[in-house]
Task: inverse folding
């Protein structure tokens, strides 16, 4: 079908300027059938575990069987009354929001500096801010744990603050990446125009630059929240019995047996991610996520 | 440094004298201070402490470090025992395998998204890919455990249908670990590729086609070579994510597939040998850094200014 369309497009004489015909040609992109098949398999592979967890969380039986036994809110109720999963979920929410606020603020500031001020070794400094992503979470967690014990001055060993700092290190690279990408795409002469019309630097930034890089900041903030919310390897080294994030609570219960309450907790975590994704898609262009360079 | 830093500012403040430049540049420096403070005090310093610890002779229960007592003992121990260096070989091999599989599975999907012209459809694809990546890793592994376990959905269905007599070994082995690692890292591969494929000028592909090249010939001689920066960046990311993951091999391999992060955890939390744990952590970090270094050399050499 699409091949035929392309052939027809070839036959139509080009319109003045040739613009229309070119658009038609691009409108019929050729994606080989094999690619379509593999892409479908990849999508299933990516999303199947999520679907399975949702089904188990809403399933009425103890084990998920095929076909499912029936719908029930039994595990959801068990999650809402759980003294393990509910506190862990709330703890993760609190941690995620704190990380998001601090990381977005500091990361945006750093991104403005890194894109606007030229100094020797700038690309090295930029790479330096991406470095925590290359360090395995467990290794970073170990380094911080040992450091907190060795430097009691900070009093961060086994505290909320100590874990927050660890999460900042792995979320700020995302904020710096997305905000830098937005700043590169922003025409700075607009801000200069505002300045020449008498606005002070802060006002010019707030009223001209900020609205233009909003999508990069939103994308970075979302990344920061969700990376923190799902962080496991790092939290493994830093969490304590009264500071247990959700992934850690789930891991503890899954090591020994299948616990459908964990799946119900998962349903709530999934809902959180989906809602924030959809909200973000409404206020920002998702292609800002492509701006992240990890190396 | 202040004068170079002030350079772009001079455009903003046309009437400002040199002192005004320096003042403004100094104020801009304030922006980087919080992030720089956190990164130097809580990233560089902890990694340095860990490095120092790794070179101290191993001793159970000792968390401190000393700069006067440096030795290679922990590293010698690591490379002498097959238990340890074997896990390094296994980790590297599994990460390479995960990168290769992620490329084969991820490229077609990235290509599909990159070539999608309908904005609504492209947005939906992006939401699905991002959602799969954003979801808690433990939840995703839980999904696989329900699916692949001995009493899991697949085995249960096949057993009841009488297709198989005994459960297929789908997890608690290398297969399960690779399934988990690829799932974990695949979205990063796809995101690395989408932008690069979109950046390829479609008229190049059209030119090849109009000169009579087949669809596949066009792909392998134009599209794929031109997307190499994305392929390399994505493979590097998948490798780094896969080799560093602790939760995936534990949950999907059930302690039967021993990789380096598991030794780190065991030394620290079970044996209490912090220094040896730190040494293994340093070796793991060194492997990731070596791969990044090779990647940078390669992109500089072959990609010129493209990457």
Result:
């Amino acid at each position: 079908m699409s091949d035929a369309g392309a052939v027809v497009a070839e036959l139509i004489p080009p319109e003045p300027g040739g613009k229309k015909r070119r658009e038609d040609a691009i409108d019929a992109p050729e994606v080989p059938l094999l690619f379509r098949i593999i892409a479908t398999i990849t999508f299933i592979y990516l999303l199947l575990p999520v679907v399975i967890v949702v089904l188990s969380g809403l399933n009425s039986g103890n084990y998920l069987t095929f076909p499912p036994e029936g719908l029930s809110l039994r595990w959801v109720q068990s999650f809402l009354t759980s003294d393990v999963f509910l506190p862990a979920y709330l703890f993760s929410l609190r941690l995620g929001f704190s990380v998001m606020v601090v990381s977005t603020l500091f990361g945006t500031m750093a991104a403005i500096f890194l894109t606007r001020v030229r100094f020797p070794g700038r690309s090295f400094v930029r790479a330096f801010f991406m470095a925590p992503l290359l360090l395995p979470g467990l290794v970073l967690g170990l380094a911080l744990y040992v450091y907190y014990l060795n430097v009691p001055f900070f009093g961060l060993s086994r505290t909320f603050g100590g874990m927050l700092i660890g999460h900042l290190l792995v979320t700020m690279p995302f904020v710096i990446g997305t905000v830098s990408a937005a700043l590169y795409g922003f025409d700075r002469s607009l801000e200069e125009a505002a300045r020449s019309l008498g606005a002070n630097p802060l006002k010019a930034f707030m009223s001209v630059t900020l609205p233009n890089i909003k999508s990069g900041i939103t994308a970075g903030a979302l990344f920061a929240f969700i990376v923190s919310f799902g962080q496991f390897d790092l939290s493994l080294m830093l969490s304590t019995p009264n500071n247990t994030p959700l992934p850690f609570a789930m891991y503890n219960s899954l090591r020994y047996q299948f616990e459908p309450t964990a799946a119900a907790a998962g349903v709530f975590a999934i809902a959180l991610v989906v809602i924030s994704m959809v909200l973000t898609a409404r206020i920002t262009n998702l292609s800002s996520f492509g701006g992240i360079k990890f190396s | 440094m202040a004068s170079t830093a002030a350079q772009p500012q001079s455009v903003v403040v046309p009437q400002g004298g040199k002192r005004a430049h320096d003042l403004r540049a100094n104020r801009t420096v304030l922006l980087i201070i919080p992030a720089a403070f956190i990164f130097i005090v809580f990233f560089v310093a902890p990694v340095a402490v860990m490095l120092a610890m790794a070179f101290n002779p191993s001793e159970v229960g000792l968390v401190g470090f000393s700069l006067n007592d440096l030795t290679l003992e922990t590293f010698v121990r690591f490379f002498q025992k097959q238990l340890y260096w074997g896990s390094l070989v296994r980790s590297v091999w599994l990460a390479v395998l995960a990168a290769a599989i992620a490329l084969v599975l991820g490229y077609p999907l990235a290509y599909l998204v990159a070539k999608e012209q309908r904005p609504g459809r492209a947005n939906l694809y992006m939401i699905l890919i991002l959602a799969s990546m954003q979801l808690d890793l433990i939840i995703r592994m839980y999904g696989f455990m329900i699916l692949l376990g001995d009493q899991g959905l697949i085995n249960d269905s096949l057993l009841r249908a009488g297709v198989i007599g005994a459960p297929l070994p789908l997890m608690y082995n290398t297969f399960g670990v690779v399934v988990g690692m690829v799932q974990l890292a695949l979205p990063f591969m796809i995101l690395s590729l989408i932008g690069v494929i979109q950046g390829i000028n479609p008229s190049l592909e059209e030119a090849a086609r109009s000169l009579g090249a087949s669809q596949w010939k066009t792909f392998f001689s134009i599209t794929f070579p031109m997307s190499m920066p994305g392929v390399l960046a994505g493979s590097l990311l998948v490798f780094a994510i896969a080799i560093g993951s602790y939760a995936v091999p534990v949950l999907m391999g059930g302690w039967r597939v021993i990789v380096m992060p598991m030794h780190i955890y065991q030394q620290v939390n079970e044996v209490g040998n912090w220094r040896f744990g730190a040494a293994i952590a340093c070796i793991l970090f060194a492997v990731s850094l070596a791969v990044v270094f090779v990647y940078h050399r390669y992109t500089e050499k072959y990609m010129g200014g493209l990457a």
User: Anything to note?
Assistant: Residues 32-293 of chain A form a domain with the MetI-like fold fold (CATH 1.10.3720.10). Chain A touches chain B through 108 residues (CB under 8 Å). The CA atoms of residues 205 and 280 of chain A lie 23 Å apart.
